[in-house]
Amino acid sequence: MSHPLRLVAVAFGAGVVFGIGLAVSGMTRPEKVLGFLDVTGRWDPTLACVMGGAVVVHFVAYRWARGRTPWHAPRFFVPAGMPIDMRLCVGALLFGIGWGLGGYCPGPAIVSLATASSKVLVFVLAMLAGMWLVRPALAAAPAEPKPRRDAAGSSLQ
Amino acid sequence: MDDFTPWSGLAGGVLIGLSASLLLLGAGRVAGISGITAGAFSRERDHRDWRLAFLAGLVAAGLVVNLVVPGALPASPRTHAWLALAGLLVGAGTRLGSGCTSGHGVCGTSRLSPRSLVATLIFVAAGMLVVGLWRALGALS
User: Fold this and answer.
1) DSSP per residue, B6-38
2) Residues in chain A with pLDDT < 50?
């Protein structure tokens, strides 16, 4: 399926702004991220400010989007009615452990690929490998959305 | 707390929120980077174009930042071996958990999704635990 150039351009633009936001916030510095997770030591709460700023802005946009249609797409693709199950919890746990071990989550790591650092490359390749390795687990027990009256998912709840 | 930089943190966060809003309003998509990455490299060819474009945008931003502000993208202090393990866990965990700091932490929380709130609490707590252990075992200075 080919999408209008506008859609692809919007995605690219969003990626650029996201990357700049990550850099400005300091979240592309793993030491800073680890500092937020270092509650028992030299705690750096900056990440909380980052999340706070992001959530407040996005909350407004999300509310505004309800009842509307995306500019360059036929509908919203927003998950809804998915269960809070063991897979979610185990996944979040594993992700958190990996995050605490490396100080990287997917976004900052991909932005940092621009430095061609071997450390970043190792992390990203391993991340792709990890994503690939759990594919059987995803296929074996696909999470089913809870039944909803409007199952089309064509508009935001 | 000498490293606390609330204002640049907030500014960066606002940019992140704006970009996620742009992707939502413009493309109808959640700016969940783990999902976008997995989708871009999956067999699903239908939506590979916008996903790759988004990822290219991230890297493009990195290239610009790296040129303009040397030192803005330092590598992790951890060794390659630890980063390999960390990457595996992040990859596996974000797929199983259907999201990461952007997908659950920013986008899901903004939607007041209970699922995302639970996931965010878990991965933040897990990260804090791991760093706490790392410090307790004497590895942190």
Assistant:
1) HHHHHHHHHHHHHHHHHHHHHH-B---HHHHHH
2) 146-155, 157
* Spatial contact of B24 and B30, defined as CB atoms under 8 Å apart: yes
Nearest-angstrom CA–CA distance, A72 and A91:
32
Q: How many CB pairs under 8 A join A and B?
A: 507
CB contact under 8 A, A130 and B57: no
**Each residue's pLDDT tens digit, B87-109:** 999 999 999 999 999 999 999 99
**How many angstroms away from the CA of B68 is the closest CA of chain A?**
11
CA-CA distance, B68 to B32, in Å (whole number)? 27
Question: Are residues A29 and B74, on separate chains, in Cβ contact within 8 Å?
Answer: yes
Give the residue from B107, B31, B113, B117 showing the smallest Cα distance to A146: B113
Interface touch A99/B126, C-beta < 8 Å = yes
Question: pTM score, two decimals?
Answer: 0.93
pLDDT band at residue B2 under the 50/70/90 scheme: low
How far does A117 lie from chain B, in Å, by closest CA?
A: 7
Contact partners, residue A155, CB within 8 Å, separation at least 6 = A66, A67, A75, A76
Helix (H, G, I), strand (E, B) or coil at A77: strand
Secondary structure letter of residue A27 according to DSSP: T
B108: number of CA atoms within 13 Å, CB side? 26
* Cβ–Cβ below 8 Å for A98 and B87: yes
